Amino acid sequence: MTRRNSALLFFVLLASFGSAQNVNDAGMWNAFSFSSDIKDLTPWKDPKIFKDWSVHVDPEMRFDENISRLYGYFADLGTEKKWSKYFLTSVEYRLGAKREESWYNLRTRWSMGGQLTLPVKDFKLSSTTRYQFAQVLTSDVDMKSTWRQKVSVEYGGWENFGIQISHEIFFLPVTLENTNWRSQVSLKYKIDKSNALSVGYLVQRDLTNADMDFVFLTGYKWEFNKKKDKGSDLK
User: What would the pLDDT profile of 167-194 be if each residue is shown by its tens digit?
Assistant: First the structure.
Protein backbone atom coordinates (compact mmCIF):
# COMPACT_ATOMS: atom_id res chain seq x y z
CA MET A 1 0.00 0.00 0.00
CA THR A 2 1.43 3.36 -0.97
CA ARG A 3 1.88 6.23 1.45
CA ARG A 4 -0.83 8.21 -0.35
CA ASN A 5 -3.39 5.40 -0.16
CA SER A 6 -2.59 4.77 3.50
CA ALA A 7 -3.02 8.43 4.38
CA LEU A 8 -6.34 8.45 2.52
CA LEU A 9 -7.47 5.37 4.46
CA PHE A 10 -6.54 7.11 7.73
CA PHE A 11 -8.69 10.16 6.99
CA VAL A 12 -11.59 7.99 5.78
CA LEU A 13 -11.52 6.18 9.12
CA LEU A 14 -11.28 9.51 10.94
CA ALA A 15 -14.31 10.84 9.05
CA SER A 16 -16.33 7.70 9.76
CA PHE A 17 -15.63 8.08 13.49
CA GLY A 18 -16.58 11.75 13.24
CA SER A 19 -19.99 10.86 11.82
CA ALA A 20 -20.93 9.71 15.31
CA GLN A 21 -20.54 13.20 16.74
CA ASN A 22 -24.32 13.64 16.86
CA VAL A 23 -24.26 11.30 19.88
CA ASN A 24 -21.95 13.44 22.02
CA ASP A 25 -20.20 16.78 21.58
CA ALA A 26 -16.84 16.58 19.86
CA GLY A 27 -13.70 17.13 21.90
CA MET A 28 -10.04 17.82 21.24
CA TRP A 29 -6.91 16.90 23.17
CA ASN A 30 -3.78 18.93 22.41
CA ALA A 31 -0.68 17.19 23.76
CA PHE A 32 2.99 18.21 23.87
CA SER A 33 5.94 16.07 24.89
CA PHE A 34 9.46 17.14 25.90
CA SER A 35 11.93 14.40 26.75
CA SER A 36 15.62 13.64 27.15
CA ASP A 37 17.94 10.85 28.23
CA ILE A 38 19.20 11.56 31.73
CA LYS A 39 22.79 10.99 30.60
CA ASP A 40 22.42 13.92 28.17
CA LEU A 41 21.51 16.20 31.08
CA THR A 42 24.50 15.29 33.23
CA PRO A 43 28.12 16.56 33.05
CA TRP A 44 29.63 13.06 33.15
CA LYS A 45 30.78 11.48 29.91
CA ASP A 46 29.56 7.94 30.55
CA PRO A 47 27.29 7.63 33.60
CA LYS A 48 26.37 3.94 33.31
CA ILE A 49 23.76 4.27 36.05
CA PHE A 50 21.69 6.48 33.71
CA LYS A 51 22.01 4.28 30.62
CA ASP A 52 18.70 3.98 28.72
CA TRP A 53 16.99 6.08 31.37
CA SER A 54 14.95 9.13 30.30
CA VAL A 55 12.76 11.85 31.78
CA HIS A 56 9.83 13.70 30.22
CA VAL A 57 7.38 16.54 30.76
CA ASP A 58 4.09 16.22 28.84
CA PRO A 59 1.62 19.12 29.13
CA GLU A 60 -1.86 18.71 27.64
CA MET A 61 -5.05 20.74 27.16
CA ARG A 62 -8.46 19.13 26.66
CA PHE A 63 -11.54 20.77 25.14
CA ASP A 64 -15.20 19.73 25.03
CA GLU A 65 -18.53 21.35 23.98
CA ASN A 66 -17.61 20.95 20.30
CA ILE A 67 -14.07 22.17 21.01
CA SER A 68 -15.34 25.46 22.42
CA ARG A 69 -14.50 25.05 26.13
CA LEU A 70 -11.32 24.17 27.99
CA TYR A 71 -12.41 21.51 30.48
CA GLY A 72 -9.04 20.29 31.68
CA TYR A 73 -5.31 20.95 31.61
CA PHE A 74 -2.41 19.13 33.21
CA ALA A 75 1.23 18.11 32.92
CA ASP A 76 2.75 14.66 33.30
CA LEU A 77 6.23 14.49 34.86
CA GLY A 78 7.79 11.08 34.52
CA THR A 79 10.74 8.82 33.98
CA GLU A 80 11.29 5.69 31.87
CA LYS A 81 13.92 2.98 32.17
CA LYS A 82 14.60 0.72 29.20
CA TRP A 83 15.84 -2.63 30.49
CA SER A 84 16.22 -4.32 27.12
CA LYS A 85 15.23 -3.94 23.48
CA TYR A 86 11.81 -5.31 24.34
CA PHE A 87 10.89 -4.08 27.83
CA LEU A 88 10.71 -0.79 29.74
CA THR A 89 9.16 0.51 32.95
CA SER A 90 7.86 3.95 33.87
CA VAL A 91 6.74 6.09 36.81
CA GLU A 92 4.70 9.25 36.29
CA TYR A 93 3.06 12.04 38.29
CA ARG A 94 0.21 14.13 36.89
CA LEU A 95 -0.70 17.60 38.16
CA GLY A 96 -3.54 19.60 36.68
CA ALA A 97 -7.09 20.86 36.95
CA LYS A 98 -10.51 19.86 35.61
CA ARG A 99 -13.52 22.09 35.09
CA GLU A 100 -16.37 21.48 37.54
CA GLU A 101 -19.35 23.72 36.71
CA SER A 102 -17.87 27.25 36.68
CA TRP A 103 -14.44 26.62 38.21
CA TYR A 104 -11.43 24.31 37.97
CA ASN A 105 -10.56 21.79 40.67
CA LEU A 106 -7.04 20.54 41.31
CA ARG A 107 -6.38 16.95 40.20
CA THR A 108 -3.32 14.77 40.85
CA ARG A 109 -2.41 11.15 40.29
CA TRP A 110 0.50 8.72 40.30
CA SER A 111 0.97 5.88 37.81
CA MET A 112 3.48 3.12 37.21
CA GLY A 113 3.69 0.38 34.64
CA GLY A 114 5.61 -1.61 32.09
CA GLN A 115 5.62 -2.05 28.33
CA LEU A 116 6.55 -5.09 26.25
CA THR A 117 7.41 -4.36 22.60
CA LEU A 118 7.94 -6.81 19.76
CA PRO A 119 9.26 -5.46 16.43
CA VAL A 120 8.22 -7.46 13.36
CA LYS A 121 9.79 -6.07 10.18
CA ASP A 122 8.13 -2.66 9.64
CA PHE A 123 5.59 -3.24 12.41
CA LYS A 124 5.84 -2.78 16.15
CA LEU A 125 3.49 -4.65 18.48
CA SER A 126 3.19 -3.32 22.04
CA SER A 127 1.43 -4.35 25.21
CA THR A 128 1.32 -1.83 28.08
CA THR A 129 0.06 -2.46 31.59
CA ARG A 130 -0.28 0.45 33.99
CA TYR A 131 -1.74 1.07 37.43
CA GLN A 132 -2.74 4.59 38.40
CA PHE A 133 -3.91 5.75 41.81
CA ALA A 134 -5.53 8.97 43.00
CA GLN A 135 -7.24 10.17 46.18
CA VAL A 136 -10.11 12.07 44.53
CA LEU A 137 -13.28 10.19 43.57
CA THR A 138 -14.21 11.09 39.99
CA SER A 139 -15.80 9.59 36.89
CA ASP A 140 -12.83 10.75 34.76
CA VAL A 141 -11.02 7.54 33.89
CA ASP A 142 -7.73 9.41 33.43
CA MET A 143 -7.81 10.83 36.95
CA LYS A 144 -9.09 8.00 39.15
CA SER A 145 -7.55 4.82 40.56
CA THR A 146 -7.68 2.13 37.88
CA TRP A 147 -5.70 -0.61 36.17
CA ARG A 148 -5.16 -0.11 32.44
CA GLN A 149 -4.20 -2.62 29.75
CA LYS A 150 -3.36 -1.38 26.25
CA VAL A 151 -2.37 -3.13 23.03
CA SER A 152 -1.18 -1.28 19.93
CA VAL A 153 0.12 -1.89 16.43
CA GLU A 154 2.34 0.66 14.71
CA TYR A 155 3.54 0.65 11.10
CA GLY A 156 6.75 2.55 10.38
CA GLY A 157 7.77 1.41 6.92
CA TRP A 158 7.78 4.91 5.48
CA GLU A 159 10.65 7.33 5.77
CA ASN A 160 8.94 10.00 7.88
CA PHE A 161 5.39 8.76 8.39
CA GLY A 162 3.92 6.20 10.76
CA ILE A 163 0.42 5.04 11.67
CA GLN A 164 -0.69 3.52 14.97
CA ILE A 165 -3.90 1.79 16.06
CA SER A 166 -4.53 0.96 19.72
CA HIS A 167 -7.20 -0.35 22.07
CA GLU A 168 -7.17 0.09 25.86
CA ILE A 169 -9.40 -1.35 28.58
CA PHE A 170 -9.78 -0.13 32.17
CA PHE A 171 -10.49 -2.18 35.30
CA LEU A 172 -11.42 -1.46 38.91
CA PRO A 173 -8.37 -1.97 41.18
CA VAL A 174 -9.84 -4.65 43.48
CA THR A 175 -12.70 -6.41 41.68
CA LEU A 176 -11.05 -6.08 38.23
CA GLU A 177 -14.43 -5.20 36.74
CA ASN A 178 -14.14 -3.74 33.24
CA THR A 179 -15.38 -0.12 33.45
CA ASN A 180 -14.18 1.63 30.29
CA TRP A 181 -12.56 1.11 26.91
CA ARG A 182 -10.72 3.45 24.55
CA SER A 183 -9.69 3.04 20.90
CA GLN A 184 -7.67 5.41 18.78
CA VAL A 185 -5.89 5.79 15.46
CA SER A 186 -2.99 8.22 14.94
CA LEU A 187 -0.87 9.39 12.03
CA LYS A 188 2.65 10.52 12.94
CA TYR A 189 5.05 12.67 10.97
CA LYS A 190 8.74 12.83 11.91
CA ILE A 191 10.16 16.24 11.06
CA ASP A 192 13.72 15.40 12.12
CA LYS A 193 15.55 13.51 14.87
CA SER A 194 14.22 15.85 17.54
CA ASN A 195 10.75 16.93 16.37
CA ALA A 196 7.57 15.08 15.43
CA LEU A 197 3.88 15.88 14.87
CA SER A 198 0.80 13.68 15.15
CA VAL A 199 -2.94 13.84 14.46
CA GLY A 200 -5.56 11.28 15.34
CA TYR A 201 -9.02 10.36 16.52
CA LEU A 202 -10.17 8.67 19.71
CA VAL A 203 -13.38 6.96 20.78
CA GLN A 204 -13.96 5.97 24.39
CA ARG A 205 -16.89 4.53 26.29
CA ASP A 206 -17.84 4.46 29.96
CA LEU A 207 -19.48 1.07 30.50
CA THR A 208 -21.08 2.18 33.76
CA ASN A 209 -23.37 4.72 32.09
CA ALA A 210 -23.01 3.99 28.34
CA ASP A 211 -21.58 7.47 27.63
CA MET A 212 -19.29 7.76 24.61
CA ASP A 213 -16.75 10.45 23.77
CA PHE A 214 -15.36 11.33 20.35
CA VAL A 215 -12.11 13.26 20.45
CA PHE A 216 -9.72 14.75 17.89
CA LEU A 217 -6.06 14.40 18.84
CA THR A 218 -3.10 16.64 18.01
CA GLY A 219 0.43 16.23 19.30
CA TYR A 220 3.93 17.67 19.15
CA LYS A 221 7.01 15.89 20.48
CA TRP A 222 10.46 17.35 21.06
CA GLU A 223 13.38 15.19 22.18
CA PHE A 224 16.68 16.60 23.38
CA ASN A 225 19.68 14.83 21.92
CA LYS A 226 23.02 16.02 23.25
CA LYS A 227 25.09 14.64 20.37
CA LYS A 228 22.95 16.41 17.80
CA ASP A 229 22.03 19.52 19.73
CA LYS A 230 25.38 20.25 21.33
CA GLY A 231 26.00 23.98 21.44
CA SER A 232 23.29 26.37 20.31
CA ASP A 233 21.38 24.08 17.94
CA LEU A 234 18.41 23.64 20.29
CA LYS A 235 14.82 23.81 19.06
Answer: 999 999 889 999 999 999 999 999 998 9
Calculate ∠ Cα 158-162-168, nearest 5°.
150
| Residue among 184, 190, 180, 182 at smallest CA distance from 220 | 190
pTM of the model: 0.81
Number of Cα atoms under 13 Å in the Cβ half of residue 129: 4
Q: How far apart are CA 172 and CA 146, in angstroms?
A: 5
* Beta-carbon contacts of residue 15 (< 8 Å; ≥ 6 apart): none
CB atoms within 10 A of CB 111: 20
Per-residue pLDDT of 72-120, as tens digits, reads 999 999 999 999 999 999 999 999 998 887 788 888 999 999 999 999 9
